[in-house]
Amino acid sequence: MKDSILVINCGSSSLKFAVLANAGQDSLIEGIADRLGTEESNITFKFESKKKTILLEDGSHKNAVAQIKEWLNSHPDIADSLVGIGHRVVHGGETFSQSVLINETVLDGIKECAQFAPLHNPAHIKGIEIAFELFPGLPQVAVFDTAFHQTIAPEQYLYPIPMHFYRQHHFRKYGFHGTSYRYISQRLEQVAKGSDQQGVLVAHLGNGASTCAIDKGLSVDTSMGITPLEGLMMGTRSGSIDPSLLSFISQAEGISADAALDILNKKSGLLGVSEISNDCRTLEDAMVSGDQRAKLALDMFAIRTAKHLASMSTTLESIDHLVFTGGIGENSSYLRQAICDHLKALNITIDSTLNETAPRGDTTNISSASSGTNVWIIPTNEELMIALDTISLISH
User: Is-catalytic flag, 145?
Assistant: First the structure.
């Protein structure tokens, strides 16, 4: 075992982590610190197929990283193999078009981008600063969700608003899930030779959801915008709506614009429509039991995803592949079928038997024999991309 990378994904109230070895192929340990900042905060370690959860008396991000450090100290063979730390960073703005070794200048750049990701970037900065403190001497790398989309052309990323907003404030579409899309593009090339020279649509569907058009290996359009609120209907986010709704909600409820925005981010989407849950599995169970609100929420999610995939296709010369990934994309046969049913005009159809029986965790082609497009389920692996980028940058 050599050249292990500690991958850290620090959120506002959670911290996911993993140690990957052998060029990112082997996961030695993984886990998550949950409910940080509350009295119920805990950290779970998954090691050698066993899970162990520890309650955190001090539910801070620093204590979570300290627990990881303590665990590593008790497994010196793994601790001694660490050569670097890779951090997922949501927003790199226009400053970062690729992964970078972290120094003070990079940290300042991540802080500047925090205005566009106020929930995420400050948490990433906290995670990075704590990691430098607790793992002195280990090089650290930032891998940006937005970087993959920096190849999108101005006519796609600019908003049709007065140009001084872009010139002075960098208000534009940035897109997210880029590390996932980059992985999918590379993995697809392994199973479908030549796909790096073709047109690919990807639906990354989870609690956060987006679509991306990839032409010859490069992102040419994506559904999320300056923040992750634009685009698809999601678990708790509304996705794209008439902007005037913000004002209407604000006036109707007698609340501020920020409070109205909070409703669109945290109380809308599958949760808002179903009034049951933001979790697709819960809604599918409810739908099977005859709950019409659950069915409505899922069907709205499907039709909006299909619309965004269709709109993405306008940037491609041909739709050679459609890939489903993310927790919902990989596991919900109902939504894959419903989405593809709305794409028949594009000659995209799937084999319902292959769709229903697709093995979990496998890369599977579920196209029907008559489909003009290959339709795939490909599990994403953002941690692997972060580990590979970290190895690449620290070995130069």
Answer: yes
